[in-house]
From TrEMBL:
ATP binds at residues 288-295. 3'-5' exonuclease. Pfam families: DEAD, Helicase_C_2, RNase_T. It catalyses: ATP + H2O = ADP + phosphate + H(+). It is an enzyme of class 3 (hydrolase). Residues 253-517 form the Helicase ATP-binding domain. This is 3'-5' exonuclease DinG. CDD domains: DEDDh. The gene is dinG. Keywords: ATP-binding, Exonuclease, Helicase, Hydrolase, Nuclease, Nucleotide-binding.
Amino acid sequence: MKFAVLDFETTGTQSTDDIIQVGLAIIDHDLSISTVYSSMVKPGVPIPPFIEGLTGIKNEDVVDAPELDDVILEMIPLLEDAVLVGHNVGFDLGFLQRALDQTGYLAFTGRVLDTMDLLRIFFPNLSSYQLSMVSKDLGFVHDRPHQADSDALATAHVFLKCLEELNDLPLITVQRLSELFDNQDSDLGWYFDGVRMEKEAQPIQDLDEHRFFRQLALKVGDWNEILPAHEERGNMPLADVSFDEFLEQVKQNLRNLLPHYEEREPQNRMFEEVIKAMTDDKHLLIEAGTGTGKSLGYLLPSIYHSVKENDRVMVSTHTINLQEQLRERDIPLLTQVIPFAFRAAVFKGRQHYLCLRKFEHKINTKEFQSPKEDVLIAAQMIVWLNSTETGDDEELNMGNRGADFWETVASDTDSCLGRACPWFRKCFYHRAKHEAGTADVVITNHSKLFTDVKAGHQLLPAYDRLVIDEAHHLEDVAGKHLGMHMKYFTLVHPLLRLFKDSKNGQLAILRQQLGSSGNERGMDWAIAIDNLYPEIVDVKENWDKLSELLFALLPQRSDAAPGEAGQFTLRLLPEKQPTEWTVITDLENQIHIGLSQLIRKGEQVMNQIKESDEQLGTDSLVTDVSGLFKDLTVVRDDLRQFVKLESTDTVYWYEANGNYRSKSLQMYAVPVDVSKQLKEYFFDKKKSIILTSATLSIEKKFQYMIEQLGLVEAEKEGRLMTEQLSSPFNYREQSLLLIPRDFPSVKGSVGDAFFVDTLANSLAETAKATQGRMMVLFTSYRMLKQVYEPLKEKLSHSDIAVFGQGVDGGSRTKLTRRFQERSASVLLGTSSFWEGVDIPGEALTCLAIVRLPFQPPNHPLLEAKSERLKKEKKNPFMKLSVPQAVIRFKQGFGRLVRTSSDRGIVIVYDTRVIESYYGKHFLYSLPGPKMEHMPTEQMVPRITEWLSQAEPEKETVNQEGEQA
């Protein structure tokens, strides 16, 4: 079999555009690349500047190039009897067919394979399927991206790598893939079928590497074989070892392992404070600046304490990112340097784990919503099961449709069969739970902590000592979890999964199975299911009406530009309900009655089927349907709680977006003050809780956090320790903070024309002085959009790219990566970029903060907290708004200096930091950068001067990077 790997460069992406370069790599039957054909092509139109910039192919390069006819004539013999391969091959195939047609040849009718599909299936955990990124990840040299010959060659290498992976799969996996694409009329199915037949003719291999169960190959065996950590260790490695002795030994091992390792005083202080709090049963608030190495600062004492006392320690992070960082980087390092075996388990929310029973059912019944895309995701997962040890969705790159697919196969409480499930001993969720129960240290996240509290402590293993990293988020997460949050789709999804139309949905499939079972009770049940459909439709119609009514009540945003769809918010007050609320209450009542009837009748039928002795083969489906009825019960009760508006200690509000209208509806009922609950569930119950973050203090004091988190009593009783560790970085040398004191000010979240123009000018001039490498933080997405185009325009001749969050597609991670890859660029970000973004080294030299990050004063939760403070005769602005903004400001500042050799500039364009009475709280809370203010026009010369000063001596970097 011969493969022809094709790539075109063109004047644009429309089918009417012209080809400017051809690259064709031929792979022979022995899987060697025998020929690479490449040619420029003379287009009928000039090459647009954008394409010149992207490909590096200029108009002068194609002036004397051969015509399309000549190039096609040379290509045709190479394409004969070949399977056509391309990266996103539809694009190249379209251009090929048009070129063949234009030059009078017959269309290409051979088989076609896409390396994008193959990569998704065989490398399910790549973060990007962009050709240059894939080449780098798979270790190929791809030196000229967006040039056809280089792209074709890179694609050929990628294709061969995918075939290698396919050949290494066990036979059962290849059979599953072949079966999955059966009846798909796809060339991928044809190819898998060929490989299957070849493999079936060979002797059986790979019996040791995988576990085979119910026609799937898995990487891991039964989880009940895992022994508790202390049993596995056998002896007591720390019986007569003090913490200092243990620490000395670990440090010695670190020095041996990492030649550049050096101790840091702040980290040593942290070791002491954390172990003291754990030993003395106290709580500890510890602020650890960037570069302290705080992950090791709490992990080492936690491991020592849990192993010595046989007393598990729970560690909680706010982001999955940090959880992954601890799993991927910190724990493996500690495994190498701690002189005995310990076990750290990562335990996430249940929805992160694959349910093997649901997945098996899905691929057996091929119950796919959008077949073409879903078959690819299913194939990806079948291959992934050969390598995953966790079944965690974070390991998969499922593409845009992935979230909907995952929702149908994720583990969840309501549809879990427990020990009755044939997959129970292989179950990924129960494996994670069992591992957590047998581990010394368990790494979870804030969400799971509160889900566990709400579930009566049934989810996490018991613990008395807890470390909370990223603790400045604790209050926020507590509010979301101890309150209620519901979206438009929270009700629509379970309804649609039950019944979409007579052929789609769990009930429809169950009805078909019962109807064709030939069993007379089966027919009765099928009729009972038919009677549920109208009730589902009624509930959905009433819910749509209710959502429309709620959307209509939202006030139009005063600062939204004409014709612009903004984010609208309405707070609901128990004592002052809107006049239309009676209509809404009536509709909710109809939904409540409708749902109650539907759930009652539905559960009745499901129970009858479950209890019957008939062998109908419907167990799996009945379990899932019952689970959906349980979901609906929760939604029904949450909706009632929201519409009743009963509690004065709760803030009720809902919001929606002008573009998606009622479908973007989100409802909230959040406690005004969570400090009482935090005290009751955590600080009173647990022996020792360590709270750490880079931003806990305001002007070197912890008072704000102590009050917000419910630690006032612990402080009075002497049960609270506090410690502020300074960063080991020399901020005075490494960072310069500038304030343009004559900069125009702005009211609200929108700048006037003068402000926008002045800002865009200043940013453009600064970007030129720093050669890009600049991040600009906004507090409003609208202002970001206002500045994006003018800034792009002003930088268009300087080769500095501008990336805008929400303007240029892609997630935060993708934008950050693009920014890091292209050194001359400016990244504009809003709220999510203020923290958690880690861009060490040269990539980031300048950070611009456009406005101080105050929360909008009319945000319902802030409003309610302010009212409460006023009643207590306190100043809400100084007690609440300023501290919140200071913590956010410190987080933003922390993006700049990430290692001891980083050097950079922060510009604060908001003159309130030097003009207002509260400005000093912001500046005094920073870790001591050099601060200067000056007229705007003097800024760029000062920046140039400061950057040209000799860089500080590069210190040796401690082994552990740092995430604030």
